[in-house]
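agent> Task received from the user: take the single chain below, predict its 3D structure, and emit structure tokens. No templates, no multimer pairing.
agent> Plan: (1) validate residues, (2) run structure prediction, (3) serialize to tokens, (4) report one or two observations.
agent> Step 1 OK, no nonstandard residues flagged.
tool_call: predict_structure(input=
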Amino acid sequence: MRPTNITANKTCAILSITWNDSRVVDYPFYQLAAACRCATCNDERARLAAEGKAFVPKSAVLEAIEPIGSYGISILWKDGCRYGIYTWDSLAVMEVK
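)
tool_result: status=success, residues=97
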């Protein structure tokens, strides 16, 4: 799967991706931030899991989106988190809540 269009609506906190099969999926910023797999978020997620607590992202305010090669994007969140890579494959199968 490949996106044909990506739009970030900061007012509604939604990232809309139109996929090459014409499907349009709206990803809430909070869900994307909660799914971040950067080293910092993964460490925090593991620490909290050991304490029996859920991971909560520090920020779901989108600052910027950067392409990562031909396979995904990186999202810069307001709290400075920027190293999580959201691959097209992982986004295409992400269950939107």
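agent> Step 4: summary for the user.
The chain has one domain: 3-91.
agent> Done.
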